[in-house]
Amino acid sequence: MAARREGTQGRATRPRADQPPATKARPGSDSASQTAGPRTELRVYLLIEDLKRQFAAYLGTPTRARGYPPLEGSHALIVEVAPGLAIERVIDLALKSVPAVEPGILFVERQFGVLELHSYNLEEVKQAGKAILEGIGCAPTDQLRPRILYSDIIEDITDQHAVIVNRNRQASMVMPGETLLVYEMTPALFATVAANEAEKAAPENTLVDVQMIGAAGRIYISGKSEGVARARDAITRVLNAVEGREQ
Question: What is the pLDDT of residue 63?
Answer without folding.
Answer: 65
